[in-house]
Amino acid sequence: MTEGAVVRKLAAILMADVVGYSRMMATDEVGTLEILTRHRKEFIDPTILSFDGRIVKNTGDGFLLEFPSAVEAVRCAVALQQGMASRNAELAGEPMIVFRIGVNIGDVIFQDNDIFGNGVNVAARIEPLADAGGVAISRSTHEQVRDRLNFPFEDKGEIEVKNIDRPIGVLTLSQSMIVGLAPQTGSLSPSAKPRRSKWALLVYVVVAVGLLISGSGLAIWLKGNALSSVADVRTTPASLDEQLRTNLAIALPELPKPDVEKLINDYKEGGVHRSLAIAPQAKEHRWTADWPTRDVAEEQVLERCQMTYGEPCAVIASDETVISPDGTNHWTTRDMERLQYNKHFSTKRIPGMRPSILSRPDVLGYQAQTGPKAIAIHPQGIFSVVTGAATQHQAEEQALKQCLDDPARKKAVGHCLLYAVGNQVVLPLRRTRPITD
Predict the structure, then answer these.
(1) In the predicted structure, residue 205 carries a pLDDT above the cut 60
(2) Confidence of residue 5 (pLDDT cuts 50, 70, 90)
(3) Which of 246, 299, 373, 392 is 20 to 30 A from 95, alpha carbon to alpha carbon?
(4) Angle 436-358-382 (CA atoms, 0-180°, nearest 5)?
(5) Residue 425 β-bridge partners
(6) So what's the pLDDT on residue 188?
(7) Are strands 99-111 and 135-138 parallel, antiparallel or unpaired?
(8) Cα(151)–Cα(47) distance, rounded to whole angstroms?
(9) Helices (H) and strands (E) in the chain, counts
(10) Is residue 277 within 8 Å of residue 314, measured between CB atoms?
(11) Are residues 218 and 279 in the same domain?
(12) Confidence at residue 112, expressed as pLDDT on a 0 to 100 scale
């Protein structure tokens, strides 16, 4: 193609975006950039090339790709999500990089190795409609692949999106669906030289060097200089905000408007697989994020909510799905079984805790310890274990104090409660002071 020449043609566009990127950068800027760069070098870029894809640009927290085939674009999207799920499972203790991916086929303009036009805009607008770890495609894309790919797409109907005149038909694959599919492999080996692979390699080298030299500065520069055709890629659909506002107005009518907006923004920026619950009687809420699946996120938020407010709670949102109330403006509450458990200590019966807590040596070895011992728990995920105290009263007192002194507790709602006295679980008593005289 002649430098500066304008060419218009049909192409498949893939847009990918890192879930919760701003939150991850705020928490660990260097670590996030390092792990994202490593994923790209070791897996993402070779996979794109193996499906004959071209890396058009890196957007700091994602990338824009172009394919000559809708089938290869969708297969590449699934392969990327399958591979990232596997890599995240293997890289325990490191930040999880999870993508949302949108794919559209449409007419685009090629100029100076870049692409513009409505085909790109649509891909940018449907990408946020994908679940974390999932893929969303336009109906026009589905028309091209449905007889060639046996993927269980879920039809979401016609959806209105920002800056697009007509509603777009959208179909999705969730993360659980993708993980269950046969592994997708490209027809070109990463070592082969597919069309335009030299350009893709050059883009990667420039981006990688820029990240190493200037850290987050390159990501900021890329975002600030992004073309208008892919502006506001990370914008969550207005319908999610509106539905959350509607639900919160019903469930928590006394929550001040600034707090409502903060809650919505915090929830949207939460990590992969998140859930929001309400305590109907207390007129309060609780949300949590960064769990392996949507079901686990719902279980954890319900346990933490009930632990906090002492009543069964109801989920009103999970990931990108907002759950509507029934005809009487009520949601179904769930009484969580592990909150009622009052028998011998078992790690399988501990509610609201992350795997990193449950695998701690003091937790795993608690039951075998002899002598005075106790555990305190807090719905923020605090689990304070005390063994070897002089008396049982002191063990309970020390466990509660450790919980109260934990920095995470100082910024969170809820009480520190006794969880176990000796080997007996006493959480249902909801005691904030020692039981033993």
Answers:
(1) no
(2) low
(3) 299
(4) 60
(5) 420
(6) 62
(7) parallel
(8) 19
(9) 17, 16
(10) yes
(11) no
(12) 66
